[in-house]
Amino acid sequence: MTHAPAPLPWLASGEPFPLVDSAWGIDTVAPGLLCAGADLSVATLQKAYQNGIFPWFSAGQPILWWSPAPRMVLEVGQFKLSPSLKKTLKKFANDPDCEIRIDSAFAQVIQTCAASPRPGTHGTWIVPDMINAYIDLHHAGLAHSIETWIRGELAGGLYCVAIGQAVFGESMFYRQTGASKIALAALVSLCRQHQISQIDCQQNTAHLASLGAHEMPRDEFVRRVRALCRQPVIDWHFGSVYWQHLFAFNTASA
Fold first, then answer.
1. In the chain, fewer beta carbons within 10 Å around the N or the C end?
2. Contact at 8 Å (CB) between 186 and 100?
3. Max CA distance (Å), the chain
4. Which CATH number fits the domain 72-252, given the four candidates 3.50.50.60, 3.40.630.70, 3.20.20.20, 3.40.50.1370?
5. What is the pLDDT of residue 243?
6. pTM of the model
7. Weakly modelled stretches of the chain, pLDDT under 70
Protein backbone atom coordinates (compact mmCIF):
# COMPACT_ATOMS: atom_id res chain seq x y z
CA MET A 1 0.00 0.00 0.00
CA THR A 2 1.31 3.42 -0.96
CA HIS A 3 0.90 6.67 0.91
CA ALA A 4 1.19 10.34 0.05
CA PRO A 5 4.90 11.29 -0.02
CA ALA A 6 6.40 14.59 1.08
CA PRO A 7 6.14 17.44 -1.45
CA LEU A 8 8.72 17.08 -4.18
CA PRO A 9 11.46 19.76 -4.01
CA TRP A 10 11.82 21.86 -7.16
CA LEU A 11 15.35 23.08 -7.89
CA ALA A 12 16.45 26.13 -9.79
CA SER A 13 19.62 25.84 -11.87
CA GLY A 14 22.65 25.86 -9.60
CA GLU A 15 20.79 24.91 -6.43
CA PRO A 16 22.28 22.01 -4.43
CA PHE A 17 20.56 18.65 -4.46
CA PRO A 18 18.66 17.54 -1.35
CA LEU A 19 20.15 14.80 0.79
CA VAL A 20 19.44 11.42 -0.81
CA ASP A 21 17.84 10.19 2.42
CA SER A 22 14.92 12.51 1.64
CA ALA A 23 14.00 10.62 -1.56
CA TRP A 24 10.54 9.10 -1.66
CA GLY A 25 10.40 5.72 0.04
CA ILE A 26 9.54 2.27 -1.20
CA ASP A 27 5.93 2.63 -0.07
CA THR A 28 5.25 5.65 -2.30
CA VAL A 29 4.14 5.87 -5.92
CA ALA A 30 7.69 6.65 -7.12
CA PRO A 31 10.31 5.06 -4.85
CA GLY A 32 13.64 6.83 -5.10
CA LEU A 33 12.32 10.08 -6.57
CA LEU A 34 14.33 12.89 -5.00
CA CYS A 35 13.53 16.20 -6.71
CA ALA A 36 12.69 17.91 -9.99
CA GLY A 37 13.99 20.85 -11.97
CA ALA A 38 17.57 22.17 -12.20
CA ASP A 39 19.25 21.52 -15.56
CA LEU A 40 21.26 18.94 -17.47
CA SER A 41 24.53 20.84 -17.68
CA VAL A 42 27.82 18.98 -17.32
CA ALA A 43 28.38 20.54 -13.89
CA THR A 44 24.92 19.54 -12.63
CA LEU A 45 25.20 15.98 -13.93
CA GLN A 46 28.65 15.60 -12.41
CA LYS A 47 27.45 16.80 -9.02
CA ALA A 48 24.44 14.47 -9.22
CA TYR A 49 26.45 11.34 -10.00
CA GLN A 50 29.03 12.15 -7.33
CA ASN A 51 26.19 11.97 -4.82
CA GLY A 52 24.43 8.85 -6.09
CA ILE A 53 21.75 10.74 -8.05
CA PHE A 54 20.76 10.41 -11.72
CA PRO A 55 18.13 11.95 -14.06
CA TRP A 56 15.30 9.85 -15.45
CA PHE A 57 12.18 11.26 -17.08
CA SER A 58 10.00 10.85 -20.13
CA ALA A 59 8.94 13.23 -22.88
CA GLY A 60 6.59 15.90 -21.54
CA GLN A 61 7.87 15.59 -17.96
CA PRO A 62 10.17 17.97 -16.12
CA ILE A 63 13.69 16.81 -15.30
CA LEU A 64 13.30 14.27 -12.50
CA TRP A 65 16.19 13.19 -10.26
CA TRP A 66 16.38 9.80 -8.54
CA SER A 67 18.34 8.00 -5.85
CA PRO A 68 16.81 4.53 -5.33
CA ALA A 69 17.21 2.55 -2.12
CA PRO A 70 18.55 -0.06 -2.31
CA ARG A 71 20.85 0.43 -5.30
CA MET A 72 21.62 -2.26 -7.88
CA VAL A 73 25.37 -2.72 -8.27
CA LEU A 74 27.56 -5.09 -10.26
CA GLU A 75 30.74 -5.79 -8.34
CA VAL A 76 33.11 -6.70 -11.14
CA GLY A 77 34.58 -9.67 -9.29
CA GLN A 78 31.09 -11.20 -9.19
CA PHE A 79 30.32 -10.87 -12.91
CA LYS A 80 28.73 -14.14 -14.06
CA LEU A 81 29.42 -15.69 -17.43
CA SER A 82 26.82 -18.21 -18.53
CA PRO A 83 28.11 -21.12 -20.63
CA SER A 84 26.50 -19.57 -23.72
CA LEU A 85 28.08 -16.15 -23.08
CA LYS A 86 31.46 -17.75 -22.42
CA LYS A 87 31.19 -19.53 -25.79
CA THR A 88 30.13 -16.29 -27.49
CA LEU A 89 33.09 -14.40 -26.03
CA LYS A 90 35.59 -17.02 -27.15
CA LYS A 91 34.17 -17.00 -30.68
CA PHE A 92 34.21 -13.19 -30.76
CA ALA A 93 37.81 -12.97 -29.49
CA ASN A 94 39.05 -15.41 -32.14
CA ASP A 95 37.30 -13.74 -35.07
CA PRO A 96 39.44 -11.09 -36.84
CA ASP A 97 36.23 -9.45 -38.11
CA CYS A 98 35.14 -8.72 -34.53
CA GLU A 99 36.43 -5.93 -32.32
CA ILE A 100 35.67 -3.77 -29.33
CA ARG A 101 35.96 -0.02 -29.72
CA ILE A 102 35.78 2.65 -27.05
CA ASP A 103 34.32 6.09 -27.77
CA SER A 104 34.45 5.74 -31.55
CA ALA A 105 30.69 6.29 -31.98
CA PHE A 106 29.29 7.66 -28.72
CA ALA A 107 26.49 9.66 -30.34
CA GLN A 108 25.43 6.67 -32.43
CA VAL A 109 25.38 4.42 -29.36
CA ILE A 110 23.19 6.70 -27.25
CA GLN A 111 20.87 7.43 -30.17
CA THR A 112 20.46 3.71 -30.84
CA CYS A 113 19.80 3.06 -27.14
CA ALA A 114 17.08 5.73 -27.33
CA ALA A 115 15.53 3.99 -30.33
CA SER A 116 15.55 0.62 -28.54
CA PRO A 117 13.14 0.86 -25.59
CA ARG A 118 13.52 -1.61 -22.76
CA PRO A 119 11.18 -4.62 -22.94
CA GLY A 120 7.84 -3.91 -21.29
CA THR A 121 8.14 -0.15 -21.63
CA HIS A 122 6.51 2.33 -23.98
CA GLY A 123 8.77 4.92 -25.56
CA THR A 124 12.10 5.91 -24.12
CA TRP A 125 13.50 7.95 -21.25
CA ILE A 126 16.50 8.90 -23.41
CA VAL A 127 14.76 11.98 -24.79
CA PRO A 128 16.55 14.50 -27.07
CA ASP A 129 17.57 16.73 -24.13
CA MET A 130 19.16 13.71 -22.44
CA ILE A 131 20.98 12.72 -25.62
CA ASN A 132 22.43 16.22 -26.01
CA ALA A 133 23.37 16.38 -22.31
CA TYR A 134 25.24 13.07 -22.35
CA ILE A 135 27.01 13.96 -25.59
CA ASP A 136 28.21 17.10 -23.78
CA LEU A 137 29.25 14.89 -20.86
CA HIS A 138 31.15 12.69 -23.31
CA HIS A 139 32.97 15.69 -24.77
CA ALA A 140 33.92 16.62 -21.19
CA GLY A 141 35.50 13.18 -20.74
CA LEU A 142 32.87 11.98 -18.27
CA ALA A 143 30.82 9.60 -20.43
CA HIS A 144 32.03 6.75 -22.62
CA SER A 145 30.74 4.16 -25.05
CA ILE A 146 31.86 0.54 -25.24
CA GLU A 147 31.05 -0.76 -28.70
CA THR A 148 30.83 -4.22 -30.28
CA TRP A 149 31.76 -4.13 -33.96
CA ILE A 150 31.30 -7.09 -36.32
CA ARG A 151 32.54 -6.92 -39.90
CA GLY A 152 32.78 -3.15 -39.69
CA GLU A 153 29.20 -2.70 -38.44
CA LEU A 154 28.09 -1.52 -34.99
CA ALA A 155 26.38 -4.63 -33.61
CA GLY A 156 25.75 -3.51 -30.03
CA GLY A 157 27.11 -1.52 -27.16
CA LEU A 158 26.53 0.50 -24.06
CA TYR A 159 27.31 3.90 -22.63
CA CYS A 160 28.30 4.82 -19.12
CA VAL A 161 29.27 7.77 -16.96
CA ALA A 162 32.71 7.69 -15.33
CA ILE A 163 33.97 10.14 -12.70
CA GLY A 164 37.35 9.28 -11.28
CA GLN A 165 37.02 5.53 -10.81
CA ALA A 166 33.26 5.53 -10.26
CA VAL A 167 31.49 3.90 -13.21
CA PHE A 168 27.75 4.23 -13.76
CA GLY A 169 26.11 2.03 -16.38
CA GLU A 170 23.34 3.79 -18.29
CA SER A 171 21.88 1.85 -21.21
CA MET A 172 22.77 -0.80 -23.77
CA PHE A 173 21.46 -2.12 -27.08
CA TYR A 174 22.10 -4.93 -29.52
CA ARG A 175 21.53 -5.48 -33.21
CA GLN A 176 23.03 -8.96 -33.13
CA THR A 177 22.36 -11.51 -30.40
CA GLY A 178 24.78 -11.20 -27.50
CA ALA A 179 26.43 -8.00 -28.74
CA SER A 180 25.39 -5.91 -25.71
CA LYS A 181 26.60 -8.61 -23.30
CA ILE A 182 29.94 -8.67 -25.10
CA ALA A 183 30.24 -4.92 -24.55
CA LEU A 184 29.41 -5.35 -20.87
CA ALA A 185 32.05 -8.08 -20.56
CA ALA A 186 34.55 -5.69 -22.11
CA LEU A 187 33.62 -2.98 -19.61
CA VAL A 188 34.02 -5.46 -16.75
CA SER A 189 37.44 -6.43 -18.13
CA LEU A 190 38.47 -2.78 -18.36
CA CYS A 191 37.37 -2.22 -14.76
CA ARG A 192 39.30 -5.30 -13.63
CA GLN A 193 42.44 -4.08 -15.38
CA HIS A 194 42.21 -0.76 -13.55
CA GLN A 195 41.11 -2.32 -10.24
CA ILE A 196 37.72 -0.58 -10.34
CA SER A 197 35.50 -2.47 -7.95
CA GLN A 198 31.93 -1.83 -9.11
CA ILE A 199 29.58 -0.66 -11.85
CA ASP A 200 26.35 1.09 -10.87
CA CYS A 201 23.27 -0.53 -12.44
CA GLN A 202 20.72 1.82 -10.82
CA GLN A 203 17.66 -0.44 -10.46
CA ASN A 204 17.04 -4.12 -9.91
CA THR A 205 16.13 -6.29 -12.88
CA ALA A 206 16.21 -10.05 -13.32
CA HIS A 207 18.60 -9.65 -16.25
CA LEU A 208 21.14 -7.72 -14.16
CA ALA A 209 20.80 -10.20 -11.31
CA SER A 210 21.54 -13.05 -13.72
CA LEU A 211 24.84 -11.36 -14.56
CA GLY A 212 25.86 -11.13 -10.91
CA ALA A 213 24.52 -7.72 -9.87
CA HIS A 214 23.00 -7.36 -6.41
CA GLU A 215 21.29 -4.75 -4.27
CA MET A 216 23.33 -2.53 -1.95
CA PRO A 217 22.08 -0.18 0.79
CA ARG A 218 21.99 3.36 -0.55
CA ASP A 219 24.16 4.84 2.19
CA GLU A 220 26.90 2.29 1.50
CA PHE A 221 26.61 2.91 -2.24
CA VAL A 222 26.94 6.68 -1.82
CA ARG A 223 29.97 6.29 0.47
CA ARG A 224 31.65 4.07 -2.09
CA VAL A 225 30.84 6.39 -4.98
CA ARG A 226 32.20 9.46 -3.25
CA ALA A 227 35.46 7.64 -2.50
CA LEU A 228 35.76 6.32 -6.07
CA CYS A 229 35.08 9.75 -7.55
CA ARG A 230 38.16 11.05 -5.75
CA GLN A 231 40.43 8.46 -7.38
CA PRO A 232 42.58 9.26 -10.45
CA VAL A 233 40.84 9.03 -13.81
CA ILE A 234 41.71 5.91 -15.81
CA ASP A 235 42.76 6.00 -19.46
CA TRP A 236 39.73 5.43 -21.66
CA HIS A 237 41.44 6.49 -24.89
CA PHE A 238 42.17 3.13 -26.48
CA GLY A 239 40.56 3.86 -29.83
CA SER A 240 39.88 0.83 -32.03
CA VAL A 241 41.62 -2.26 -30.62
CA TYR A 242 41.27 -6.02 -30.48
CA TRP A 243 40.80 -7.19 -26.91
CA GLN A 244 41.45 -10.91 -27.12
CA HIS A 245 43.53 -10.83 -23.92
CA LEU A 246 40.71 -9.15 -22.00
CA PHE A 247 38.17 -11.71 -23.18
CA ALA A 248 40.62 -14.49 -22.35
CA PHE A 249 40.78 -13.07 -18.84
CA ASN A 250 36.99 -13.04 -18.60
CA THR A 251 36.55 -16.57 -19.86
CA ALA A 252 39.42 -17.99 -17.84
CA SER A 253 38.01 -16.50 -14.63
CA ALA A 254 34.43 -17.65 -15.16
1. N
2. yes
3. 57
4. 3.40.630.70
5. 52
6. 0.92
7. 1-4, 117-124, 237-254
